[in-house]
């Protein structure tokens, strides 16, 4: 497999993970305030940040 193809597969996986975590955050925030688990929201927000950084890194590595 070429590097570009490899990067595209990784990029797809990161985008999928990002979408899943954003959905989890949204679902948790729809709950009443006293039922929300703020620890989980903080954890997922960190994961979202990491996914976005990885996506940016992979996009830079892709050759046009």
Summarize the structure.
The model has no long low-confidence stretch (mean pLDDT 94). This protein has two helices and no strands. It has 64 residues and is mainly alpha-helical.
Main structural class: mainly alpha
Main sheet summary: none
DSSP strand tally: 0
Round the mean pLDDT to the nearest integer and report it. Answer: 94
Q: In whole angstroms, how far apart are the ends? A: 17 Å
Number of helices: 2
List unreliable stretches of 5+ residues.
Answer: none
| SSE order, one letter for each helix or strand | HH
**Which band does the percent of strand residues land in?**
under 5%
* Structural shape: elongated
Fraction of residues in H or I helices: over 70%
Alpha carbon gyration radius: 15 Å
Task: Using brief descriptors, characterize the structure shown.
64 residues, mainly alpha, 2 helices, 81% helix, 0% strand
